[in-house]
Automatic annotation (TrEMBL):
Required for CpsD phosphorylation. Involved in the regulation of capsular polysaccharide biosynthesis. May be part of a complex that directs the coordinated polymerization and export to the cell surface of the capsular polysaccharide. It comes from Lacticaseibacillus hegangensis. It is a multi-pass membrane protein. Residues 6-94 form the Polysaccharide chain length determinant N-terminal domain. InterPro entries: Bact_polysacc_biosynth/exp, GNVR, LPS_length_determ_N. The keyword ATP-binding does not apply. Belongs to the CpsC/CapA family. It is found in: Cell membrane. This is Capsular polysaccharide biosynthesis protein CpsC. The lineage of its organism: Bacteria, Bacillati, Bacillota, Bacilli, Lactobacillales. The chain crosses the membrane at residues 20-40, 178-197. Keywords: Capsule biogenesis/degradation, Cell membrane, Exopolysaccharide synthesis, Membrane, Transmembrane, Transmembrane helix.
Length: 247
């Protein structure tokens, strides 16, 4: 038996046949994604402070070497900010101020430190369930780092907080619109997959040529569809007989 090749017209016919199921699956995916986004996922807020750490410039000739040294030390500063030597004091200070935070390990997960290429400025970002908590965490972290780094590393002479963390009431996650679009796309894919699966597993005979050409069997006859409206007791056009007699 020759391999069956499905044409583009057949693809559209299958999609059209199961269009209701595809629409239902798409809408269900969007509704499910919206429910998880709004009811299950907790919003997260961020606040960012910018810190500059460099060395005192003694001579003009040594400025370039000092700059390269500062850039190489950025990764070290990043590690120090997220360690207990800084976050332990941050946690204690926040608790004294009435800010509820988790352990130092939890703080380390909620704090990220980044910097642009060849930049001595570090961006310290804190993420929390509350925008006020995020701002408190990042500002306290920057302050504790500024006070401790000069004693931890003697060559870090100048530590400047360029900008403190501000209050940002716009949640950075979850990304609601993106999640809903992903849910709709997933539902659409599942609906299309279901349509083709139903079509491939459907073994009913849809064309008389399947019997004569594929199965090579004789076609004895066909039965046409009968409208349900014509399936009535009696014959259409005949008046029913009643029990009244004529005189």
């Amino acid at each position: 038996m020759d391999d069956e090749v499905i044409s583009l017209g057949q693809v559209f016919a299958i999609l059209k046949k199961h269009i209701i199921a595809i629409i239902v699956a798409t809408c269900a995916g969007g509704v499910l994604a919206a429910a998880v986004t709004y009811l299950v996922m907790e919003p997260k807020y961020e606040s960012t402070a910018m810190v500059l750490v460099n060395r005192k410039q003694t001579t003009a000739a040594g400025q370039y070497n000092d700059l390269q040294t500062d850039l190489q030390m950025i990764n070290t500063y990043k590690d120090i900010i997220t360690k207990d030597v800084v976050l332990g004091s941050v946690r204690q200070n926040l608790q004294k101020k009435g800010v509820v935070v988790g352990s130092t390990g939890d703080l380390a997960k909620d704090i990220s430190v980044t910097n642009n290429t060849n930049s001595q400025v570090m961006s310290v970002t804190a993420k929390a369930d509350n925008p006020y908590t995020a701002r408190s965490i990042v500002n306290e972290t920057a302050e504790v780092f500024r006070s401790k780094i000069t004693s931890i590393m003697t060559n870090a002479k100048n530590v400047t907080i360029i900008s403190r963390g501000t209050l940002n009431k716009n949640a950075v996650s979850p990304r609601k619109k993106l999640n809903i679009l992903i849910g709709l796309a997933a539902g659409l894919v599942i609906g299309i997959f279901f349509a083709f699966l139903r079509e491939l597993t459907d073994r009913t005979v849809k064309d008389p040529s399947f019997i004569t050409d594929t199965l090579e069997l004789p076609l004895l006859g066909t039965i046409t569809d009968i409208d349900n409206q014509n399936l009535k007791l009696g014959t259409k056009g005949l008046r029913p007989i009643t029990g009244r007699s004529r005189r």
